[in-house]
Amino acid sequence: MDRARKEQVVAELDQIFESSGVIVVARYAGLTVADMQKFRRSMREAGGSVRVAKNRLSKIALVGKRCEGIADFMRGMTLLAYSEDAVTAAKVVDEYASGNSKLVIVGGSVGSSLLDADGVRAVARMPSREEMLSILVSCILSPAASIASAVGAPASNIASILSEVEERAAA
After folding, report:
1. Which residues of the chain have pLDDT under 50?
2. Residues 60 and 13 in one domain
3. Is 48 exposed, middle or buried (0-12, 13-18, 19+ CB in 10 A)?
4. Model confidence over 67-106: pLDDT tens digits?
5. Strand duo 48-51 + 113-116: pairing
6. From 34, 114, 134, 146, which residue has the greatest number of CB atoms within 10 Å?
7. Are residues 136 and 121 in the same domain?
């Protein structure tokens, strides 16, 4: 790889480290090409990305970044899985690693917080942005539904009382 290409890779990695909400470092020794393609496809479908780069270039790009601590995880055949939100990449890597023993989570970063493998798994168990939005919407709408049923309740109670009085009068 010539110097210009290395500079381009460092610039790309620099952008990844700046803009990603979560970065997961994993070892992929022994993964077949088909497995790697399947992993990349599942990450892409979820809204994340996978990047394989030389550890030395990754460490150069990490200098001065908020996630600089993940440089310690970069030994051997490592890949970077990342996404803009703070959960997606961790979820996909954790799910894939649980089904394929050749992909091993080493650690990662959420913002400036350094995570070990257990920390990445904990982030993977958190709800995604979309799930959190649906929970929030249901919390907002729940009181409105309760109010509507409470307002409608006296009318239905009166109707049932009138129906009962009518039945007694007829009997």
Report:
1. none
2. yes
3. buried
4. 898 999 999 999 999 998 888 899 999 999 999 999 999 9
5. unpaired
6. 114
7. no
